[in-house]
Specification:
single chain; 184 residues; mainly alpha; 62% helix; globular; binds fe (ii) ion; HDIG domain-containing metalloprotein
């Protein structure tokens, strides 16, 4: 029987089984899910559950029991795939918030490329939710969010370099989502 992990409730349950010991990361995840729900008008009606489920699950790769490569979008996506999660959900988690850029820094581009990136309003809205939520669930605007990541990870680290390079890509996704919300 396939797991219906693309429903927000099942996704929330799975996240809650893995993330609470991580403290802030769990607060962040809950806030990103709430933000995704607020932003769900930026996607088609029948994609709203998928968006919110992806928000619940985007950072599960940080859970110690899932750690494999140490690159959380990939570890999270692989775990979801192993559970039989729907393909789109797996790919959204693999590619959340500019994962391609960090994969390049970590020498994991080929591993990530197993999962195709959908460039869509859903991925844009997932980026929007993550990139307007602080590390402990605060509501941040995009520039503040980028700024705090660049401070939290030191210059020369994979994340610092990747986020610096990804900034225009992420900013464009946030802007497109905002425009869709304004038009809805
Ligand atoms: Fe993440």
């Amino acid at each position: 029987m396939p797991f219906s992990l693309d429903t927000p409730q099942r996704a929330a349950e799975l996240a809650e089984s893995l993330l609470p010991p991580l403290g802030d990361r769990w607060l962040h995840t809950q806030a990103v899910a709430a933000r995704a729900a607020e932003a769900s008008k930026a996607v088609l009606d029948d994609e709203q559950d998928l968006l919110i489920a992806a928000a619940w699950l985007h950072d599960i790769g940080y859970a110690p029991e899932l750690r494999d490569t140490g690159f959380h979008p990939l570890d999270g996506a692989r775990h979801l795939a192993s559970l039989g999660a729907p393909d789109r959900l797996v790919r959204l988690v693999a590619h959340h918030s500019g994962a391609v850029y960090e994969a390049e820094q970590r020498g994991l581009s080929a591993e990530l490329a197993v999962y195709e990136r959908e460039d869509s309003p859903v991925l844009d809205a997932l980026i929007y939710a993550d990139m307007t939520t602080g590390p402990a669930g605060q509501r941040f605007d995009f520039d503040r969010r980028i700024g705090e990541i660049l401070v939290r990870y030191e210059p020369g680290s994979e994340v610092h370099t990747a986020i610096s390079k990804a900034r225009p890509y992420l900013g464009a996704a946030v802007e497109r989502t905002q425009e869709r919300l304004n038009a809805s």
